[in-house]
Specification:
The complex is a heterodimer. Helices cover 42% and strands 26% of the residues of chain A. By secondary structure, chain A is of the alpha+beta class. In chain A, a hairpin with a 4-residue loop joins strand 3 and strand 4 (118-129). In chain A, helix 1 crosses helix 2 (74-85). In chain B, strand 1 and strand 2 (85-96) form a beta hairpin. The chains are: A alpha+beta, B alpha+beta.
């Protein structure tokens, strides 16, 4: 009789171990992996877009520290290509398949040189993501239930094309 | 004693099944990331070459087929001058056959890549 009770308790402990420890840990790992996948997709878009701004540079003004942008304006070019690559509309809202779940904001866009041979293009955007599992419990959500993540991309390219 | 072994064994099996299922769920994600990396490299070559060339297309197609992707369709901008937009559009199918997610069965997933950049090819 005592042995039967012990088995029941063991089953309850084992079930609790799976439900309250193993499953939440795996859920956390999955959530992190899903979020990282979305962020890496956004970074890839930003890297391609950063590199595309190369042609907006004014070639005669490639000085040591600051690089002047041409009249086309690198920021505008960056914004236009980001919309195309991330499938955003004119108001930076997602249309169709897009990792963003809401309005994307461009926070920073810089072009600079640290040596004679390489140009660095740095951009930073704020992107709202929809929590897949429990990200909402771990992060601060806005009124639409979205998590805002800041993604930064730094691209480099040679000056001599 | 035997009961404890059974329960411990059951817990271990559950943990292994959950772990392998999660790994299997990320196989399509990994294939997608791999496709994006190959396409990105092709797009960088397109930037420097002023658009798509037969060599870039063949290399990309071969790389994607090595990843067991089927129905690969590649389209890109040809002959773009310096400053003109170049576009690379790739679509492929991947047959996902998870072993442990037996309730799922096999699934044909469609993977797409569509990016626009600017040509850096200087034509003298």
């Amino acid at each position: 009789m005592n042995n039967k009770g012990s088995a029941v308790i063991s089953i309850i402990i084992a079930s609790a171990f799976i439900v309250f420890l193993i499953l939440p840990v795996f859920a956390f790992v999955m959530e992190k992996q899903i979020t990282n996948t979305k962020i890496s997709s956004v970074k890839e878009c930003m890297d391609i877009t950063n590199r595309a701004v190369y042609t907006a540079l004014k070639k005669d003004s490639l000085c040591k520290s600051e690089v002047e942008l041409s009249i086309n304006n690198g920021k505008e070019q960056f914004a236009a290509l980001l919309k195309k690559n991330m499938n955003l509309d004119d108001g930076f809202m997602p249309k169709g398949v897009c990792p963003a779940a809401g309005k994307v904001e461009i926070l920073k866009f810089d072009i600079y040189r640290e040596d004679d041979s390489t140009i660095y293009i740095s951009s930073q955007i704020r992107i709202p993501l929809k929590p897949s599992l429990y990200l909402g419990e771990l992060c601060v959500l806005d009124k639409d239930g979205l998590v805002h993540i800041i993604v930064e991309a730094l691209s480099s390219m040679p000056v001599d094309n | 004693m035997a009961g404890k072994f059974m329960i411990t064994g059951f817990v271990m099996v559950c943990i292994v099944v959950i772990g392998i299922s999660i790994v299997e769920m990320f196989v399509p994600v990994s294939i997608n990331s791999s496709l994006k990396t190959d396409c990105r490299n092709a797009l960088i070559r397109m930037e420097a070459n002023g658009g798509m060339t037969q060599d870039i297309e063949n290399t990309l197609e071969k790389q994607l087929q090595e990843k067991k992707l089927t129905d690969v369709v590649i389209s890109g901008t040809y002959n773009a001058k310096y400053g003109e937009e170049i576009n690379l559009e790739v679509s492929a199918s991947y047959t996902w056959e998870p072993v442990f997610l037996f309730f799922k069965g096999s699934d044909v997933l469609s993977i797409e890549y569509n990016r626009t950049s600017i040509s850096r090819m200087v034509i003298n």
